[in-house]
Fold:
Amino acid sequence: MKVFLRKDVEKIGMAGEIIKVNDGFARNFLIPRQLGIEITPDNESFYKKQIKTVDQRKEVIATKTSMLAERVRNLNLIIKRKLHDDGKLYGAINASEIVEALQVEGVSISKSQVLFGKSIKAKGSYEITLKLTANLKPTFKVTVVSE
Structure:
């Protein structure tokens, strides 16, 4: 079955694409969740025109996102927190605190886009990754210092 994707579906396709999937997957997952619309011979030409419009929007979004990625790569955030005598934090720094620090710098993202392996529990410099798109994941430096 051919389906026009209305939203991005991970490992399946991007919004605005016409993809071919199994009938059951389309009827039981994509269409009920309004992630896709079934392509019939009657509406196929309409959705092929939609692809061109979506491609133009994607180009604009891609340029804006790449500009944001360059801006993020040049950031060096400094977070001031209270520390124990041995240099450890009283509480760990989490994704929402990094989002707040980025908002001060004029970068607006959600906390689900912030990726870091271990939680930040001590003084020092850390590399943080932002997931802007599936392919674009810039990293920046966060430095934790004493108040």
Notes: Residues 75-146 form a domain with the Ribosomal Protein L9; domain 2 fold (CATH 3.10.430.100). Helices lie at 23-30, 44-73, 95-104. The chain has a mean pLDDT of 88. The chain is about 35% helix and 30% strand.
